[in-house]
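Dear support,

We are seeing what looks like truncated structure output for some complexes. This example has two components. We would appreciate it if you could run it in full and send us the complete token output so we can diff it against ours.
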Amino acid sequence: NAGVTQTPKFQVLKTGQSMTLQCAQDMNHEYMSWYRQDPGMGLRLIHYSVGAGITDQGEVPNGYNVSRSTTEDFPLRLLSAAPSQTSVYFCASSIQTGISGNTIYFGEGSWLTVV
Amino acid sequence: KQEVTQIPAALSVPEGENLVLNCSFTDSAIYNLQWFRQDPGKGLTSLLLIQSSQREQTSGRLNASLDKSSGRSTLYIAASQPGDSATYLCAIRGDNQGGKLIFGQGTELSVKP
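Here is the complete output from our reference environment:
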């Protein structure tokens, strides 16, 4: 059981370039989300999805785009990379919304540097 | 707007000591609270989840408590070991829609042999 898989692990981009961070889970989880982690600021929610075909914005959505065409995959697209998007990105999933006791599982992170 | 704070930002203790990590939040209307462990260069691993109707949860040497009225949660680690060295984060889930989490900044724990 692979859990939540993120690729790539490390990426360096030039300002203005676009790229996609991939996230896949094999647990048949409905809920998936993307967070970014910056020093001294904890994790902040970028976008999330409660099921295939449904996405919504989190706390810091600007500059990012997502889609959810399948239950398993939830890619995060950087449209035009900026140095402020240098961060560590985490994808997460959980079994279902509306259940108080369900645990959220995280991928191992993607380190992105924009120069 | 919910805000989550963890103090201290860093903590260093000798091996074998019992310790408490603190998490405070501003809005008591929470759905659940979760404690995570993060090792350097790694993702987050869930340690304990406390539902809003619960007061505490225990797993091995870890015990987490929740006091919604005072907006506080504590993570108690008994008989600390060097392998407990990591960053510990608490996160609040505010509602039953989407499972969005609001994180504290974390406490970096170092347990010295």
